[in-house]
Amino acid sequence: MSKQKNLKLGWSALLVGVLLVGCAQTNQAPVETRTGFGRTTTVDPATLPGAENAGKPGYYTVKPGDTLIRIGLEHGQSWKDIARWSNLENPNAIEVGQVVRVVPPGAAPGEGRPSTPPTTTTASSSPVQGTALPPAGATSTPAPPPVPAAAPSADAAGLGLIWPASGTVIGTFNETTNKGVDIAGKAGDPVVAAAAGKVIYVGEVRGYGQLIIIQHSKDYLTAYGHNQKLLVKDDQNVKKGQNIAEMGSTDTDRVKLHFELRRQGKPIDPLRYLPKR
Question: Sorted alphabetically, which SUPFAM superfamilies does this protein's record hold (predicted)?
Answer without folding.
Answer: Duplicated hybrid motif
